[in-house]
Automatic annotation (TrEMBL):
Pfam families: PmbA_TldD_1st, PmbA_TldD_2nd, PmbA_TldD_3rd. Belongs to the peptidase U62 family. InterPro entries: Metalloprtase-TldD/E_C, Metalloprtase-TldD/E_cen_dom, Metalloprtase-TldD/E_N, PmbA, TldD/PmbA_N, TldD/PmbA_sf. Residues 132-238 form the Metalloprotease TldD/E central domain. It comes from the Bacteria. This is PmbA protein. Transmembrane segments: none annotated. The lineage of its organism: Bacteria, Pseudomonadati, Pseudomonadota, Gammaproteobacteria, Lysobacterales. Residues 40-104 form the Metalloprotease TldD/E N-terminal domain. Residues 245-453 form the Metalloprotease TldD/E C-terminal domain.
Amino acid sequence: MNATTTSPVLHDDSIERLGALAGLSERLLDLARDRGATQAEVSCSEEAGLSVSVRMGEVETVESTRDRGIAVTVYFGQRKGSASTADLREESLVATVEQACAIAKYTEDDPAAGLADAELMAREVREFDAWHPWSIDADRAIDLALACEQAGRDADARVENSDGASLSSGRSLSVYANSHGFVGRERGTQHSLGCALIAGRGDAMQRDGWYSFGLSSNDLESPAAIGRRAAERAVGRLSPRQLRTGEYPVVFAAEVARSLVGHLLGAVSGGALYRGASFLVGTMGTQLFPSWLSIHERPFMPRGLRSSSFDAEGVATRESALVENGVLQRYVLGSYSARKLGLETTANAGGVHNLEVSPNADGVDAVLAAMGSGLLVTELMGHGANTTTGDYSRGAGGFWVEDGRIQYPVDGVTVAGHLGEMFRRIEAVGADVDRRSHIRTGSILVGRMTVAGEVTDGG
């Protein structure tokens, strides 16, 4: 986005600040050791950012943030205590460690408690092109947000109102250290620009929007392109129809398809599994998806949104398959949940690091052609996915498709099914990957789902 790179680059002291955080972490570990802790771990972070919002050509909010945090966890054998602070004074650091130690002494032994095994610590900590600070000031940020909103309002006369535009830019520094001698340093930036517009009048109004997100401001779409895309989406939703309740093929557009992968992650995460709160308990090694579908974790992806050499416990990350040829290869585990399950950590304490879903089709047009007739979902509402039972029911909006082509917008419907059946019924994944998430998938065609609407002549 050339228009956003005109601000001068200020002095970058991030390396020095990371060094200071690392020194602070080691000081806290020493304090814990001196008080008898058998193991300890420390997380230190600094964050700074700028966000602005505008609406109908007027500035609504301007916010500059600067936060820091320190979290200390100590273990006395298998008794655990944690405390946190944002105060860097020596007396506060001492008090924080002492509070964590006091808590540990009053807790019960937990056989699964403790640091991840020392031999699993990352030996090499690399960067993955995630540090791109943007020296933008509030005036420039406001100008870009105003330009984005104005481009959308000017794009179509049917856009008569706005929910506003916003720009945000943030940077973060973090250090994780533990008594195994591991010290991991990370730095990253995130920037976004988007707007939401309202087309039509009265009861016929429809709202939609668009946003762009990246680790570098150069990765953002231009304000004009974002505004026009938001207008196109809002206008495209005008005069929606409802559908006759029935079973139809459903395509989840790329921007909502990643939620299906998110439900899979929730069901195969260690916490849900050892509590028995997942419909996928005991399914490792079984066929969950069609044989052509694979999902791989890529922690070393340059400029990946979740790239890292280590997880939240210092364990070395690794490229691996979550699903291979439709078969669930492993769960998503940190060391605690792994011990509870009698398994080994998968280096996923704190979450997954960039997932890629393998496509078997070209863009969304190819996926719609494969569907023929059915529902294209571009918006999901509510929280109707239960990963304990697998039941799925969510409000949805989108478009009715016939012969692979969009016919008219659809609103006020519910799509329902069971996640296990939905996974097995996936017929196509497009190459139209939405890169605004660490879950990288294109549009997904589920061969059959229940779509609840009203009995009408449409559909």
